Amino acid sequence: MNLSELIHEFILALIEPGILVGSIGTVSFINIANSTFSLGLVFTCISLLYFALNADFIAAAQLLVYVGAINVLIVFAVMITDQSVSSDSEKRGIGYFTALGACSILFLTIVCIFHKINDFYSSSIHQSEYLKLNLFEKNDVQNIGYQLLNKFLVPFELASLLLLVALVGAINPARDEDEGKDIAENKKKSFVSSTSPRDKSSFF
Amino acid sequence: MNDINSFLSRLNSTINFSTILPEIILIVGLITIVITDLVNKGKNAIFLYKIFLISTLVSMGILFYQLISVIAFEDLYTNNIFNNLFRFFILICSFISVLLSVDYVLCSKISLAEFPLFKISAGLGGMILSCATNLITIYVSLEFLALSSCFLSGYTKRDIRSNEASMKFLLMSGASSSSLLYGFSLLYGFSDGQVQLDNIIDKISFSQYLPIICISAAFILAGTAFKLSLFPFHQWTPDVYEGSPTRVVAFFSVTSKVAALSLFTRLFRLIFPYLSNEWHIVVELLAISSMILGNLIAVTQRSFKRMLAYSSISQIGYVMIGILAADLENGYASMLTYTFIYIFMNLGTFARITPFSLRTGTNNIRDYAGLYMKDPVLTFSLVLCLLSLGGIPPLSGFFGKHYLFWHGWKAGLYISVTVALVTSVISIYYYLKIIKLMLTKTTNLVDTLKTYEKQKSLVSSVISTKLKSSVEMAMILCALASTLSGLFMDPIIKITRNTFF
């Protein structure tokens, strides 16, 4: 192995235990706040993995979206809810063993598939074809930007409008209506003389 | 400056802006609404509705002009007659539903600027969905439509049923669009990275990957059948329709169904032509069960809105026969004509429920008893629309159904057409039940109707007559359309004929 492959292996050897430790921590911490932080560790390590695999746009998107938005949201939700420390039960019923069996079968299936794909792609014919694709010469981000503004212009602009509508729609039910309460009280006074069926229904 | 010039010239060569001009006008209207609301600080809200109306009308005018002179345009979406007709339908839906909701402005206690905003955005999403041929554009516009409809249905946030309706709608539409996306991802992967629908068909080899294509078809069917509320995916419809405000239900009962119809037709026609036997059988099954289920359960309903929800499930079952019966000489003519008539019938019925529920505050069918004595105009127009929904001649619903079933029988769908005929008769029962209730003079009136005041207005009389007239205008428009369209059936069929692609 030459130097670059050695460095590559070294970096991967650093990142993968991070993912393992983070995911085990997410599942087995009793305090939920700890488990959300270890989820953040998992997402960060996956993003570093994308960097190591030379997909810089996806790595940046993973950092921004998963760590910066989704994980922060989960942390907010966890911090707001009042969580008492749950007691852990040592008893491992039948559900535990069924889940253990299913997950191990799934894991073995995935490992087998990866081995088969590895054998398939490491044969010389496919390697030369793969090298012909010249994937490493184009700049990832530039390519994506070019496509976004030329081929996918309509969905791009539509997604920006979608963000606007989503923002307005998210704030709309959540905001406090002070004027609404005053108008409601005034109308209630004028409705004293009105008929009873109108009070039955809420709003049509 | 050089960069910007070259960028603009390259942009002009790739995208011909005149083809998406109607959508651009709607976007301009949307931004104008937001800005005027910010500037006016919540006063003078009728102006916002006027902006909405003007932008819809202008965009309809431009679309009409485009319908006459078909402009060819590649890449992002194509402008054949099928797509343009659907865009036109959605604009009609938006226009009429704006007329319905103008009185919302002064009678509600909730802030008002977001309502036209969401309606325009839902109309915009529907329009772009009608002509998208790109997997990404389809998904983004579908999500746009679903999200705006969800916000609309949760608009009256003080009402618990409205909150429940929007929660159900959001969760279920999220689940179904994720299954749609999975189907798309299978197509994307196996066609070597192509996103355009035409390129997918070219690159994917049907013989080699047949099981994958079947799986992808199943997922896409699940995703689109949700929006159409076909049989197993219809569970959200009654609850959402009952909980949302009536004007909102009027709007998205037609808009999202029309947009979903165009999506369904385009996807299944373009991508899975080799599978046409398989998916024909499945869709036929779904259509038969939706018709049976919708009509049978609608008989037992006590709330008007819920009954209309189940009846709209069965109407979509009829329209599915039109999709299955498409052939070379007629195209999708039967489906398009029935959709056109369905828009007016459905919006007309909702246009009459809205003022009734506003004046009496109830949606129970029993409370409609003896309405003939109190408000003959409302009664008469409601009778016309309900009879048209049922399919009684000489109203246009009859002509639409007649053409649909004749087309289906000619295409060999004997079971579906028989089931459709039987269930149409059942549907006439529950429509006539309401009509009989309204027209009979009962000796002891129901409590709610004793206090029915026709001229009820919450604000000064000048504005109230103007508002009343807009809803009345919508009512009269829909009533006329649903009666007289039957007479203009031939020109409508001739326009919708050349739509096979």
TrEMBL record, chain A:
Looking at the UniProt entry, the stretches that span the membrane are 6-30, 37-53, 59-81, 93-117, 152-171
Q: Does the keyword Transmembrane apply?
A: yes
Q: Identify a single GO molecular function assigned to this protein.
A: NADH dehydrogenase (ubiquinone) activity
List each coiled-coil range: none
Q: Pfam families from the entry?
A: Oxidored_q3
Q: Which UniProt keywords apply?
A: Membrane, Transmembrane, Transmembrane helix
Q: Which family does it belong to?
A: Belongs to the complex I subunit 6 family.
PANTHER family named in the record: NADH-UBIQUINONE OXIDOREDUCTASE CHAIN 6
Give the protein name, as stated in the record: NAD(P)H-quinone oxidoreductase subunit 6, chloroplastic
Tell me what organism the protein belongs to: Ceratopteris richardii (Triangle waterfern)
From TrEMBL, chain B:
**NAD keyword on record:** yes
Q: Where is the NADH:quinone oxidoreductase/Mrp antiporter transmembrane domain?
A: 132-427
| Source species taxonomy | Eukaryota, Viridiplantae, Streptophyta, Embryophyta, Tracheophyta
Q: Which Pfam families match?
A: Ndh2_N, Proton_antipo_M
What membrane topology does the annotation report for this chain?
A: Multi-pass membrane protein
- Which molecular function GO terms apply here? NADH dehydrogenase (ubiquinone) activity; quinone binding
Please tell me the species this chain comes from.
Ceratopteris richardii
Query: Can you tell which superkingdom this protein's organism belongs to?
Result: Eukaryota
What protein am I looking at?
NADH-plastoquinone oxidoreductase subunit 2
GO cellular component annotations of the record = membrane
All residue ranges annotated as the NAD(P)H-quinone oxidoreductase subunit 2 N-terminal domain in the record: 17-103
Its localization reads: Membrane
- Membrane-traversing stretches: 20-39, 51-73, 85-105, 136-155, 167-189, 209-228, 248-267, 279-300, 307-326, 332-356, 377-399, 411-432
> What are the alphabetically sorted keywords of the record?
Chloroplast, Membrane, NAD, NADP, Plastid, Plastoquinone, Quinone, Thylakoid, Translocase, Transmembrane, Transmembrane helix, Transport
What biological process terms from GO does the record include?
ATP synthesis coupled electron transport
Membrane among keywords: yes
